[in-house]
Amino acid sequence: MAVNVGLIGAGVMGTDHARFLTTSVGGARVAAVSDPDTGRAREVADGSGGAVIDDPVDLIGDDRVDAVVIASPDPTHKPLTLACLAAGKPVLCEKPLATSSGDCLEIIDAEASTGRRLIQIGFMRRFDPGYVAMKTALAAGDLGAALIFHCVHRNATAASYTTSENLIANTAVHEFDIARWLLDDEAERVTVVSPRASSLGGMKDPQIILLHMTAGSVVDAEIFVNAQYGYDVRAELVCEHGTVSLTPPNDIQLRHAAREGFGHPEDWRPRFAAAYRDELQAWIASVKGGPPAGASAWDGYAATAIAEAGLASLASGATASVDLQPRPALYHSP
Ligand code: ISE
User: Fold this and answer.
1) What is the mean pLDDT of residues 99-123?
2) Are 74 and 161 in contact (CB under 8 A)?
């Protein structure tokens, strides 16, 4: 039996998730779509034969919906996730889980009181073949201890909603999650360094974010949301006996007009297409009774707590500490 997915948000990410669920994820169908723009909800729903339900809370409670994908704006994530928990329905919520660590903790309490993991967060990089191979290389042990994790995250142009602050809370949050996951460690301190700002975009861009991890490694992340030339995500992990890096994830290298090179996509969707597909497939498997997959609500909380410390550092110019609450038993296993 296919899982009937209710999709909230028919924007860039919602449309992409619907496409994967309809074309390349097995065992699922988009049964209903909700978006304040009814026209675009209808367009996405028509692609899969689903219904349009105007109110997202009605969609969550609807009997035709078994599980929910939340791809609406960040401030809606908390109330909609709580509504999914109240209805006892599994939910894949796009990052961030909520806009403050206090709100994340409220969600964690609500999930813990159901006694089961119903929430997966859309930190899709955990499913990217490159990052998975990096983690496998580190776990093999030959590289020794991780010392430095260099990250670069560049967008061609910033989304209209991007500010100096949500460059940390919405964009760098991917680096926060992937660093915790790769290093199997937590961040204890965050320092944001703002170089001279690009004249494009009117915000503090780029930023360099340093995370001091509890086991002693340091993560440096360059976040540049108006890099102009394309979407580019890089990473190199420096260890005691060698390094492991992502290689450019392109199929071809072109030589033309006295130049040689490879292209960059305009945004993250082509770069992380395999990751988005595999993330959804793993979620559907967990909805069908398999073990929880991907990032948990706890991971969502930890990433938002790092972002909050980053915002404090951005405002003060000083290093800020990350004070995580004790991890509830529900989140002790992966
Ligand atoms: C967007 O929301 C994403 O999740 C992308 O992966 C990221 O590169 C972009 O900066 C965010 O705005």
Assistant:
1) 97
2) no
Q: Is the CB of 12 under 6 A from ligand 1?
A: no
In a domain, 322, yes or no: no
The residues, any chain, with a CB within 8 Å of residue 81's CB and separated by 6 or more, are 70, 91, 93, 97, 98, 107, 119, 297
Q: Please check whether residue 247 lies inside any domain of the structure.
A: yes
Q: Is the CB of 224 under 6 A from ligand 1?
A: no
Distance 171 CA to ligand 1 centre (A): 5
Ligand 1 neighbour 226 (Cβ under 6 A)? no
The answer on 252 and 105 residing in a single domain is: no
Supply the range of the domain harboring residue 210. 126-267+302-314
CA 329 – ligand 1 centroid, Å: 31
Q: How far is it, in rounded angstroms, from Cα 217 to Cα 148?
A: 6
Beta carbon of 154 within 6 Å of any ligand 1 atom: no
279, 162: one domain:
no
Tens digits of residue pLDDT in 6-65: 999 999 999 999 999 999 999 999 999 999 999 999 999 999 899 999 999 999 999 999
